[in-house]
Design goal:
451 residues, mainly alpha, MgtE N-terminal fold, Tetracycline Repressor, domain 2, 21 helices, 7% strand
Amino acid sequence: MQYVEGYDNLVELVESGDEEGLKEALNGMPSADVAEYLDEHFEVYNTLVLLDKMSSSQQAEVFGYLRPSHQQEVATHMELGVLAKLFNDMSSDERADVYALLDVKLQDALMRRMARSEREDLLRLVSYEEGTVGSVMSSDYATIPVGTTVEQALRKLRQSAPEKESIYQAYIIDGQHKLMGVISLRQLLMGTPSEQIDDLMTRDVVTVNPDMPQSEAARIISRYDLIAIPAVTDNNLLVGMVTFDDAMDVVEEEDTDTMHKSATVGKLEMSLSEAGPLTLYRKRINWLVLLVFVNIFSGAAIAYYEETILAYAALLFFLPLLIASGGNSGSQTATLVIRAIATGDIGKGDGARLFAKEILVSTLLGLSMALAVMAVAYFRAPEIMVVVGISMFAIVMIGSLVGLLLPFLLKVVGWDPATASTPLVTTIADAVGVMVYFVTATLVLGLAVGG
């Protein structure tokens, strides 16, 4: 990040004990930037000192932006009373995230210092399974009772605004806390004071269920351009909301996870800078070893057709080129399919249409690449020009179809389609491509099968 002037002096100000200078330096600094600077430059002790010099609101915001591992360390070393006050000032969803990082003893101590309503709210939020809407939703939403006038609604929003994460939208509820509709701040400001919100509110509300995947909520927010979306139970009870910034965090997390899987790297529960060598080793070694054994088939195929290679040594010149082309075409297709599945662009009913389209595209790609490699073979080894042309066409076709079908097959068996990654598709395409190349050479050139 590009730090504004004054960030580099924070360490000196903390170590020198210049409280006035420290408070002045912190005044107006964006909380997200301060947190990132603390993560990169401050140990636990200096972080505690710096947090102590902030206002309660800034302290809660900065702490909420810290890395989870840094949050855990700071919370563990913080005085219980200070931590309880910090918890009280944090938003409900961030409070739940930090609470889940703490050990049981500290969790119990915090619970005893919280009001009953806050304690019940926290326990409810942390009870949702990781990866669901409930795990990222906030309970700091604004509500207005049904039957309220515009004037009463505005007065209620004005009073509750400091405690709410957002008041740009308010949810209309009945006496049982069921969601009846939603109204925007704009609608309230444009309405007359005596007008009933029942006449202004939107009754057809887009909602999510707290048990549905968080990625689905992020897609819905993006699709309908929402700033927040209410979370309701099957009985339409309002239990939380997911804001746009929460959705963006989910998208970033999902994209990171997909990128790791596309490179056959296990899911990292921390950032790359925090992960130790052994953790990175464990996340990478399993797939690499598996792919080594899959590649044995390529070696076995080459050994089996040894006589074909000895008869036409020029075949080896084109082997890397042909095999790489199959892997590349397969990886392109797999990337397009995986992304389309992730964004909901294609579903179960699109398989046949997509297959037909890929047949056409891979045919055109195969013919183009076959003509290109035949032109090279014409000058390098004209006696195998037909072999490399046919092989290129077939390998590109097979590689593309592997890249198309593998994500769907993995989804059918319950695996993440992102597992159909570049290394996996390439390895499969390599093994099949070697077989196709030497079988084609044996048949076209009229050679006996090796062995």
